[in-house]
Amino acid sequence: MRICVIGAGSIGGYLAVHLAQAWHEVSVVGRGPHLQAIRKNGLRLLTSDREELVARDLNVTDRLDTLGKQDIVILAVKAHQIAAIADQLEPLFHADSALVPMQNGIPWWYFQRHGGALDGHCVESVDPGCIIARAIDPQRIVGCVAYPAAKLEAPGVIRHIEGNRLPVGALDGTESKAALMVSDAFVSAGLKSPVLTNIRAEIWLKLWGNLSFNPISALTHSTLVDLCQFPASRNLAQQMMEEAASVAANLGIEFRVPMEKRLAGAERVGKHKTSMLQDVEAGRDPEIDALVGSVIELGHLTNTPTPSISAVYALMKLLSKTIVDEQICVKATPRVLTAA
After folding, report:
1. Is residue 94 part of a domain?
2. Catalytic annotation, pick one of 206, 261, 273, 321
């Protein structure tokens, strides 16, 4: 199968290596030193089992127009980076191609093929002006929730922390041919990829923790286990999750696990830096609107108050503005103690 991964960072790179190891014809689209390292040495994956997998036979490029038709296109860039490339994706598709967005948070397509009273509603916080929605045919989208935790260790090197589950689902809740094709490809690569009939509920389940864990960790420079074990930050996360659960309930979503189990799962991950904290430390614009701003927007849409979420969102937006305007990274460094 011909598979293209747009954005070969932590999750995209993790997938690209596993799919290449399963003998799929894999192309990766990247940029900068990471792309150059992949071209020179292949893409290395340091697994959670202390193995090293190397994908050397990748088609590596920084130009979408060189790739040709693909069976599956995995969109693994940040949510706020999609609009810039949305109108360049169509040449990658044939009649049966599937597009698999892998962004965290509420996706631009959330209300597309929804079937409810809000069917077709544009989520402005992740798709201002509906640029993405107009450029991409929702018929070919397969929703996906990426649970693996990974990080970009160095240019050309991905470190897998834990997890291998990537549930997928058609937007209309059917077991579509496209969803089954994507699931089969992921399973062939040794990943867990059940086909779900309510992919939106699964999106909310992951978002439920991310909308609190990510910004709290980025603001406090704390890992998952730290913020879950410190009473004040744990309480704040619970308040944000309770507000999000009310928003979700007003959209007909029920969570299949209790809040305490979701918190316990995050705590078990241990000393892992969230993606938002990694972005802040690297001086990258963090993914705030898809994870946090979108929930506030849906709160307004459903007349559901979100005071704790809104307060944390304001702080993260200011931090993001500072990072972008001042071109800085914000990283904790060990204090050097000197003798008196």
Report:
1. yes
2. 206
